[in-house]
Design brief:
By secondary structure, this protein is mainly alpha-helical. The chain folds into 3 domains: 2-92, no CATH class; 104-144, no CATH class; 170-235, no CATH class. The chain has 11 helices and 3 strands. It has helices at residues 2-10, 23-36, 50-60, 67-78, 83-92, 104-115, 122-127, 129-135, 140-144, 183-192, 213-225, and strands at residues 170-175, 196-201, 233-235. A 3-stranded parallel beta sheet has the order 1-2-3, with helices on both faces. β2, α11 (213-225) and β3 (233-235) form a beta-alpha-beta unit. The longest helix is centred in the first third of the chain and has 14 residues, at 23-36. The chain is globular, with a radius of gyration of 20 Å. The protein starts with a helix and ends with a strand.
Length: 237
């Protein structure tokens, strides 16, 4: 999704991070600069480091609704103002105006580590870094170093094979531009089910229901009127 974001920015003069049609190179330079010289927004807040920037970018990848905000934040950071990136960073961590935070990410982490921890040792995490970078050159190096589950003190929960046997048709909705839950994984889930019905939504956002009238009508018809949609139904923008 970051590649798509930068490509559309390079193609539009109106993009605030246009950089003469080379948003990609400008992004790479900015990220390197933030690593060497973090931006201080205020004395009582974390400086905008490379890591803060990556988290801000991750927040914006959940939906192209955030892309204009990210464009402006990156441009401001180029000019020495990190407040836009810090704002996206705060949204990711659910920071409130009074300085408190939500606990959604804590819950997500504990559930994920019990459900599917991935690499189970620091050494295994480190050994996967090159693969992450090969697949995602700009973001892979940052997100590969996820030691939380490798150091999690609670054993993984037993895996249960779920096929939905006897449940009847189960509708699974996937989105083409979902950075958090990729369409490839959605397809695997639908295929695993005894009667999985896949709807593919063409959109740059996390989750697809409500993205357009097509998918909304199909899902509502299934839930309310018990009308099973066509498998592999594709709902465009």
């Amino acid at each position: 999704q970051l590649t798509a974001f930068l490509e559309q920015c390079s193609a539009r003069v109106a993009c605030k991070f246009y950089n003469k049609g080379n948003a990609e190179a400008a992004f790479d330079k900015l990220i390197a600069d933030l690593d060497a010289n973090p931006l201080v927004v205020s004395s009582d807040r974390t400086p905008v480091t490379q890591g803060v920037a990556y988290t801000a970018i991750a927040q914006a990848m959940y939906s192209d609704f955030y892309w204009p905000q990210l464009e402006a934040a990156l441009k401001s950071a180029q000019l020495g103002d990190g407040s836009g990136l810090l704002s996206l960073y705060d949204q990711y961590y659910q920071r409130q105006d009074d300085g408190t935070y939500g606990n959604e990410l804590e819950a997500f982490l504990s559930i994920s580590c019990l459900d599917d921890p991935g690499a189970k040792s620091v050494e295994e995490v480190n050994s996967n870094v090159d693969d992450f970078v090969a697949i995602a050159p700009r973001l892979g190096g940052n997100f590969a170093y996820g030691y939380s589950c490798a150091l999690w003190p609670i054993p993984q929960a037993p895996k249960v094979e779920i096929t939905g046997k006897g449940a009847g048709p189960i509708v699974v909705v996937g989105t083409t531009g979902d950075a958090a839950t990729p369409l490839e994984s959605t397809r695997k889930m639908a295929k695993k089910l005894e009667q999985g019905i896949l709807i593919v939504v063409s959109a740059n956002q996390h989750t697809g229901y409500g993205a357009n009238a097509c998918v909304t009508k199909a899902v509502d018809g299934y839930l309310i009127d018990l009308v099973v949609p066509q498998n592999e139904l594709t709902c465009g923008n």
